């Protein structure tokens, strides 16, 4: 019955029999049989099924909530009996937005794998949001705290943004001495799925909202960074992306006395997001601790 309960939990988390079948490496028909047998033993209907969706019944919601600790405790007990509870091992699936993954995560993963040779990392660099419940992901690294109460978040670092441009660009264009000057410049823009783009400036009690335009828009920061280095325009990007180029003087800070953000309420913080569990798996805990140590 325990295995059937685990199948039931995966179906609920995945949202469909077919998705659960992929995660568990089972045929969809086997998933359906497990659910049928579980419902027969419980003598109640847990899921209402249609061609489009699965809906938990009231009994199903109650059983899902109450049986969660049973499944978790069973996994912990089995791990203890096998002597693996404290040993990080197994597949760790990580989803991270492209620029942070390339610049900050990829360079430190080899060290982590040397420390924990029994862990295998599957790294997905993608700027789209993922659903940890249905996309079969252990950790997602994103800007901002998730709204889903079923997820936990651990802060990795501040996402401070800096205004920069190449020396070549600045030598060939009008001086930028105040935020409003940017209206006359080509600004390299992060796509925010809206027609107008604004950058928000703060200095003490002074606040400015500046409308900016440019000939290059990207969801990821890397294309914008490359364009800025080639003298194509003014760049507003995270410090962790531009810092090496400021140090090498390939980029120059603009209006350093001002705090600049893409959003009025700031650029947020970068978090590692994972499923809520009383005891996260050892390889997840180990990677969380490792990231905090290396990135802070």
Q: Could you describe the 3D structure shown?
A:
With 296 residues, this protein is α/β, with parallel strands linked by helices. It folds into three domains: 2-82, Winged helix-like DNA-binding domain superfamily/Winged helix DNA-binding domain (Arc Repressor Mutant, subunit A), CATH 1.10.10.10; 90-158 and 269-295, D-Maltodextrin-Binding Protein, domain 2 (3-Layer(aba) Sandwich); 161-261, D-Maltodextrin-Binding Protein, domain 2, CATH 3.40.190. Helix content is 39%, strand content 26%. The chain has helices spanning 2-14, 17-24, 28-42, 58-82, 98-105, 109-115, 167-172, 221-229, 239-247, 282-295; strands at 47-49, 54-56, 90-96, 119-125, 139-143, 151-158, 161-165, 187-190, 197-203, 206-212, 216-218, 234-238, 252-253, 259-261, 269-275. The longest helix has 25 residues, at 58-82. The protein is elongated and about 75 Å long. The two termini are 45 Å apart. The mean pLDDT is 86.
Concise structural overview:
With about 300 residues, the protein is α/β, with parallel strands linked by helices.
Residue stretches low in confidence (pLDDT < 50, at least 5 long) are: none
Number of strands: 15
CATH fold title of the largest domain: D-Maltodextrin-Binding Protein, domain 2
The average pLDDT score comes to 86
Organism: Shewanella benthica
InterPro entries: LysR-type_TF_proteobact-type, LysR_HTH_N, LysR_subst-bd, WH-like_DNA-bd_sf, WH_DNA-bd_sf
Family: Belongs to the LysR transcriptional regulatory family.
Keywords: DNA-binding, Transcription, Transcription regulation
């Amino acid at each position: 019955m325990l295995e059937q309960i685990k199948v039931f939990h995966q179906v609920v988390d995945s949202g469909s029999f077919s998705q659960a079948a992929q995660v568990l490496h089972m045929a969809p028909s086997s998933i359906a049989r497990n659910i049928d047998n579980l419902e027969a033993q419980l003598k109640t209907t847990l899921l209402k099924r249609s061609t489009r969706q699965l809906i938990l019944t009231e009994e199903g919601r109650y059983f899902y909530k109450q049986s969660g600790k049973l499944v978790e405790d069973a996994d912990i007990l089995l791990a203890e009996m096998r002597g693996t509870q404290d040993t990080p091992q197994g597949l760790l699936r990580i989803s991270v937005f492209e620029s942070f993954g390339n610049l900050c995560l990829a360079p430190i993963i080899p060290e982590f794998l040397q420390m924990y040779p029994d862990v295998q990392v599957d790294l997905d660099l993608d700027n789209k949001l993922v659903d940890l419940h249905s996309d079969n992901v252990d950790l997602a690294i994103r800007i901002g705290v998730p709204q889903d109460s079923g997820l936990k978040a651990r802060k990795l670092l501040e996402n401070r943004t800096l205004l920069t441009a190449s020396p070549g660009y600045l030598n060939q264009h009008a001086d930028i001495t105040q935020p409003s000057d940017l209206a006359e410049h080509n600004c390299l823009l992060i796509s925010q799925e809206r027609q107008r783009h604004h950058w928000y400036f703060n200095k003490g009690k002074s606040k400015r909202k500046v409308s900016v335009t440019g000939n290059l828009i990207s969801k990821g920061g890397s294309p914008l960074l490359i364009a800025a280095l080639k003298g194509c325009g003014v760049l507003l990007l995270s410090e962790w992306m531009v810092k090496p180029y400021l140090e090498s003087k390939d980029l120059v800070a603009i209006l350093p006395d001002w705090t600049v953000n893409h959003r009025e309420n700031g650029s947020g913080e970068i978090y590692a997001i994972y499923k809520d569990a009383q005891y996260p798996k050892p390889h997840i805990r180990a990677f969380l601790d490792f990231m905090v140590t290396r990135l802070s």
